Amino acid sequence: MAPDYPRRRHSCIGERRGPAADVVGVTPGTHRPGRCGGADYPSLVDQMLAVPHRETRATTWMRPAAVASVVANIGIVVTGAVVRLTGSGLGCPTWPHCTGGSFVPHRAMGVHSVIEFSNRMVTFVVAAVAITTFVLAWRLGRASVLRVAFLLALGVPAQAVIGGVTVLTELNPWFVSLHLLVSLAMVGLAVRLVRLLDEGDGPPRPLVPPGMVWLARGVFGVGWLVLYAGTIVTGSGPHAGDASAPRNGLDPRDLSQLHADLVFLLLGLTVAAVVLVRTVPDTPPLVRRAADTVLAVELAQGVIGFVQYFTGLPVVLVAFHVLGAALLSAAMTWLLLAVRQRT
User: Fold this and answer.
1) Which has the least CB within 10 A, 23, 26, 149, 312?
2) For residue 337, with 0-12 CB atoms within 10 Å meaning exposed, 13-18 middle and 19 or more buried, which class applies?
3) How far apart are CA 114 and CA 91, in angstroms?
4) Same domain for 240 and 263?
């Protein structure tokens, strides 16, 4: 319900009964004098901004929207993997149309076109979540939250363009790699948004000793090297997204060995972080949970990775491995942000 502003008693514009403090969201003494003797009353702009529960609604829905951003961006990573693993990457052979001037596939085009078109439709879900999140962030009024929400919203058309170029280049493996990496970065950015809602906008203050802070940074940096190497391995392997799609020409075995070496380095850093947070007194529980989560995701990823390698890369295991990559991006971002606090 809007504030009950008293009616004017005569033609004098802006005259009000009672103090400005009676108006929701208005502070006395902060308004320009009226045109009737300099009375202290809110301007029209102030009245428009004094909508009851505006900030309350944004605060209530901002966290669900941020969590939905994490889920939506992880979801489209998985659906994109399904497109590639089912050989449906060129199910819609052009972009932005699906084929021949039509945005939707024809029945004669088969199941691959349905899979690719469905993945394109998931983009609209991600866009809806991103737009909702941006609007809520704008209403919330925090510049730091708004910036991250804007980047998430900007990422949707950017990914659409990258995806379009990927299709138009007939699934060039380097564009496929870029497409996935940007999606993984958006997962991490969404996690950043969730974390922002638990802290202020002041300078970051470490919650753990410097050694732990550097370990978290090391896990984050090496983790991204692992993710990048994984996309290059994929670009050299059999799951190209289409039978006619090109490969990057690199040796899959050598790349897999490099990927495994980086994984072992990442595991070593993560184990060190887990041990350190348990030996340092007064380590916040949030940091311990974050370190444990990163280690759990890495162990699961390691098992899936080795099993898929020695069983000929079955589609289901590869799909779970891609899901694990998205979860790893989220987990290591959370650890990086958990070791410090803004007030």
Assistant:
1) 312
2) buried
3) 7
4) yes
